Amino acid sequence: MKQKYVILKNDGDKEITIQEFAELDKDMMSLLCEQKYSFTAIKAAIKKSKEDLIGIIRTPNMYPSQEYVERLADSITAMFGPENADSTEIFCDDLELLSNETKHQAAQTKAEENDSGIDEILSEEFDANYSEKDDLDTLKAPLKIGDDESINVKDDS
After folding, report:
1. Where are the domains of the chain?
2. Coil vs helix vs strand at 48
3. How far is the C-alpha of 83 from the C-alpha of 8, rounded, in Å?
4. 3-state class of 109 per DSSP?
5. I need a surface site. Which of 72, 115, 150, 152 has the fewest CB within 10 A?
6. Is residue 108 within 8 Å of 85, Cβ to Cβ?
């Protein structure tokens, strides 16, 4: 699904409006949600961290995916920075997102296949005559279970 986010900065009302559009019909974007945020809340979140800004952007009505909300947060931060734009648009395509995830997974799988260091460590022979073996033999377990004892569990069903 294709999506578009329009961010409008209204200096008169001291608020930002984020509009979320989606392509519900071919080549036709429909408004799904419109959310307003005060300048004071946005500026305070920008000063704290990107995660705080993301926390403010996400609401029960508008909850973009992590990649999209990060792009929204970056655009809002830029709007209050030296760029000082009045509006911006962000276009998102789920097919591109899925394609990027598939490429990332393929790269990760290839990296895991090439990493044999862990396998070498796990396959090394273990020396049974190590120096601390006697210390382990003197440890006493808090519970002892006899080898010949068993527990009978009845199934009531």
Report:
1. 2-101
2. helix
3. 14
4. helix
5. 152
6. no
Q: Which residues contact 118 (CB under 8 A, 6 or more apart)?
A: none
What is the radius of gyration, based on Cα positions, of the chain?
29
Q: Which two tokens stand for residue 95?
A: 């097919």
> 69: part of which helix (H) or strand (E)?
helix 66-79
Q: Are 65 and 97 in contact (CB under 8 A)?
A: yes
Cα of first residue to Cα of last residue in the chain, in angstroms, is: 48
Rounded distance, CA 12 to CA 18, Å?
16
Alpha-carbon separation of residue 98 from 111, 113, 117 (angstroms): 20, 22, 31
Span 56-88, pLDDT tens digits: 999 999 999 898 999 999 999 999 888 788 999
Residue found under tokens 């005060």 = 38
